[in-house]
Automatic annotation (TrEMBL), chain A:
Residues 44-270, 304-419 form the Pyrroloquinoline quinone-dependent pyranose dehydrogenase beta-propeller domain. Residues 1-23 form the signal peptide. SUPFAM superfamilies: Soluble quinoprotein glucose dehydrogenase. This is Glucose/arabinose dehydrogenase, beta-propeller fold. InterPro entries: 6-blade_b-propeller_TolB-like (IPR011042), Beta-prop_PDH (IPR054539), Quinoprot_gluc/sorb_DH_b-prop (IPR011041). The keyword Endoplasmic reticulum does not apply. The keyword Metal-binding does not apply. It comes from the Bacteria.
UniProtKB/TrEMBL annotation, chain B:
PROSITE patterns: CYTC. InterPro entries: Cyt_c-like_dom, Cyt_c-like_dom_sf, Cytochrome_c-type_DH. Residues 29-118 form the Cytochrome c domain. Pfam families: Cytochrom_C. It comes from the Bacteria. This is Cytochrome c, mono-and diheme variants. Residues 1-19 form the signal peptide. The lineage of its organism: Bacteria, Pseudomonadati, Bacteroidota, Chitinophagia, Chitinophagales.
Length: 423, 137
């Protein structure tokens, strides 16, 4: 490690003379030379950690995967022809594919991706390069997409199963979505085909709802999810509901609307129900509370059969990435712990929250302590009032073969690489 | 806490009233009233600076709908808007619910405020115009 730091030091002098190399994919994407950045690419990190931007202006960079040889695959949220997936190899960026979407995972010799309706996989060669960029296998098709909560984020276990989020196309399953005074639908029908995690086979083509299993239900929308290999279990981050103050000022004041409900991490077993839309989790009362669309008043409890979260975070911060860290580069406390990328809130009033990557220490599949902010200042502005002011918003997370942590930004398409160099 | 919030609300209302008085913008009192409607019903989604939320809620800054023909804009307030409708070639994921419970004057005020704020410059909307458009539904 020391040699690497010394090397990086020499190289940083050389960068003063070098010019940024431009990607030759015909747009404004930029690859940064792999040298130390004394400003840590604008991020605030714990002592001993460094960050650099390895690529910029890729577009809306969503989830990310790194191959065992260090190539980086990034899912871009765009429908522009040939721009769906960016591949960063050394000083070069190439793109391929034509579909919007978020999902991006490498498992074994396959790259798994998702559009907003489908799941694909691409076979990789012995250098972990996509063999046939134009002809992926279509594993799953026909998943519901009604624009709201459309991202089909995914992860895999070690037994050949793939887990796909199908978000609820609604805030709280009202007769009229987000309308003040509109009641919640009894026996919410959205839960039949969405608001949960579906399990499919990773090696079978053209599966649809009938071929899969609703693995867990009552999850409003999940973008960050990961398989925890330490206890062989699926963990997800739910995006909690909106509008408690806006729609129910008789039960909630502005401050309560800002702080409720908690953004929750759930450890899932097959058949679990997290309770949406009937309840939400109140992180201050530490209770499942009946949703006001279903007769709640901010105090009545509900969801006797719904699971409790593994850990609860402040409201509205929009967790878009989850990664269990299994590397050896970072200090011991990070091993098997969870990193969570909080995209940043929009529906708080008088000041937004999030726009950072958090860390939760874990042991034996359970959080052992309080969460903390790991990487901060993505927004690049003080006292952010609206998400449009954010220069960067963290979204996807991945671990490199050397244990480095990669973070995407879906405002400008920056890819950050975070490394630990000691004190 | 409630007292502080109430005092804050009263203060900011007074301040915005004063600001409206001193600036004397087009239809000054309508703009001042519209700001209050905006803060209560629109701000959470469309944001304090009208910039919206990227990919989720549309901005209100110089868009075709905001600056365009009044009937179409009034209908967005009355009927809401589905996420499947593009705005200036962009899609936004969240549905806007109908706000037909607002009075004609409130709709006129908030649209006049939006059309003369956030860098926009467009004609005021009157309660009579809203009434006529609502009557056609």
């Amino acid at each position: 490690m020391k040699t690497r730091i010394a090397l990086l030091g020499c190289l940083s002098v050389m960068t003063l003379l070098s010019v940024q190399s431009r990607a030759n994919n015909g747009d404004s994407s930029v690859i940064r030379p792999m040298v130390a950045d004394p400003a840590n690419a604008g991020l605030k990190l714990p002592t001993g950690f460094k960050a650099q931007a390895i690529a910029e202006n890729l577009g809306a960079a969503r989830h990310i995967a790194v191959t065992p040889l260090g190539d980086v695959y990034v899912k871009i949220q765009t429908s522009k022809p040939g721009k769906a997936i960016a591949v960063i190899h050394g000083n070069e960026v190439k793109t391929f594919g034509t579909y919007r979407g978020t999902g991006m995972v490498i498992k074994g010799n396959y790259l798994y991706t998702s559009s907003d309706e489908e799941v694909y996989r691409y076979a990789l060669n012995d250098k972990f390069e996509v063999i046939n960029p134009d002809q992926p296998e279509k594993l799953v098709t026909g998943l519901i997409n009604r624009h709201q909560h459309e991202a089909k984020a995914l992860t895999l276990d070690n037994e050949g199963n793939i887990y796909v989020n199908i978000g609820a196309y609604s805030n709280s399953c009202q007769v009229q979505d987000r309308a003040k005074g509109s009641k919640g639908i009894e026996g919410c029908p959205i839960r039949d085909s969405a608001a949960g995690i579906w399990q499919f086979r990773a090696d079978k083509q053209n599966q649809t709802y009938g071929d899969g299993t609703r693995y867990a239900s009552g999850l409003r929308n999940v973008v960050g999810l990961d398989w925890n290999t330490a206890d062989n279990q699926l963990f997800v981050m739910q995006h909690g509901r909106d509008g408690l103050f806006d729609m129910f000022p008789e039960y909630y004041n502005l401050q309560q609307g800002n702080e409720l409900p908690a953004e929750c991490m759930y450890a899932l077993k097959k058949g679990d129900d997290a309770g949406w839309p009937y309840i939400y989790y109140d992180g201050e009362q530490h209770k499942k509370i009946l949703a006001p669309e279903y007769g709640g008043d901010g105090k009545k409890k509900g969801g006797e059969n719904a699971i409790d979260p593994a850990i609860a975070f402040p409201a509205h911060m929009a967790p878009n990435g989850l990664l269990f860290y299994t590397g050896n580069q970072f200090p011991a406390k990070y091993k098997n712990g969870a990193f969570v990328a909080f995209h940043g809130s929009w529906n708080r009033q008088k000041g937004q929250k999030g726009y950072f990557v958090a860390f939760v220490p874990f042991k034996d599949g359970k959080p052992t302590g309080k969460w903390e902010i790991f990487a901060d200042d993505f927004a690049g502005v003080e006292n952010i009032q609206s998400p449009g002011q954010a220069k960067h918003r963290p979204c996807g997370l991945a671990q490199g073969p050397d244990g480095s942590l990669y973070v995407t930004d879906d405002v400008k398409g920056t890819v950050y690489k975070i490394t630990y160099g000691g004190k | 806490m409630k007292k502080i919030i109430l005092t804050g609300v009263a203060l900011s209302a007074a301040l915005s009233f004063l600001a409206a008085q001193t600036k004397k913008p087009v239809a000054g009192s309508s703009v001042a009233r519209g700001k209050k409607v905006y803060e209560q019903y629109c701000l959470t989604c469309h944001q304090v600076d009208g910039s919206g939320v990227p990919h989720l809620n549309p901005p209100l800054i110089k868009t075709t709908f905001v600056l365009g023909e009044k009937p179409a804009l009034v209908q967005v307030i009355l009927k809401g808007m589905q996420s499947s409708v593009p705005i200036d070639d962009e899609y936004y994921s969240n549905n806007m619910p109908p706000h037909n419970f607002l009075k004609d004057q409130e709709i006129a005020d908030v649209l006049t405020y939006v059309r003369n704020n956030f860098g926009n410059k467009a004609g005021a909307v009157t309660a009579a115009e809203v009434k006529a458009i609502r009557a056609k539904n």
